[in-house]
Amino acid sequence: MRARGRPGRPPFAFIAETSVLDIQRLSKTYGSRSGASGDKALRDVSFRVPQGQTLGLIGPSGAGKSTLIRCINRLVEPTSGAIHLGDTDLAALGSRDLRRARRRIGMIFQEYALVERLTVMENVLSGRLGYVPFWRSFTRRFPGRDIENAYRLLDRVGLLDHADKRADALSGGQRQRVGIARALAQEPELLLVDEPTASLDPKTSRQIMRLITEIGAERNLPTIVNIHDVPLAQQFVDRIIGLRSGELVFDGSPDALTEAVLTDIYGAEDWTAMRQDHEEDEAAEQASRLTLAGGAG
Predict the structure, then answer these.
(1) Entry pTM
(2) How does it sit in the membrane (predicted)?
């Protein structure tokens, strides 16, 4: 049975589709001051992501999930390997070409990375900074098209009424929604999401994951989500990659993520109890939505 909340695309449709992102033998070794070979954060990781697919990265702390996300847009420099976004090898770009290429990659951060003193609207428009002349960015005078699009994005993420509110006045879930709108303002070809629910309560976490996957499906936007909550990943993403000690040890549909596979990735854990807790939380949220809908009717 398909997990609730996940778009209804067939599993492994990515095999037959044209890939937007193609990662080949990506490795990252952090240097050692003692002169030793250093710590290998990623070891020959290879996979492809097609148009419109939401891929979840799971694995224990230190498995290389955040390093992988940040190597793709080169916030962390890979040691070796290729990262093709369309026909462009991001790993081979110089600084000027990399700045241009980063316009094509939207990034949503765990800690939101908003400018607290600016308004919600100004934070969303900051997603256009790579496209406007310096004087426009300095004076925050953006073209009318960008402003209209920002309003549409705020409406889509449910924050239209908060456009003029300062970012530091928002809740955690609202800040994450601003981060989503800002990333989409770039009009990206690829969306990278680093632990979007780590600081959120279970109900808000489901709302944010639902929003991310719905927007990805609407825009046919390939999306990679680094996520620590396994049941949440199984509920919403199309495909899961499991990392352990920097190596890719699982690549398949959420339904194929059995207790044996999870134990191989994480070690022994009561996966049944974890799923039951998640299902109970989801059932309570659905009951609450139904109650509210009934009252509104």
Answers:
(1) 0.83
(2) Peripheral membrane protein
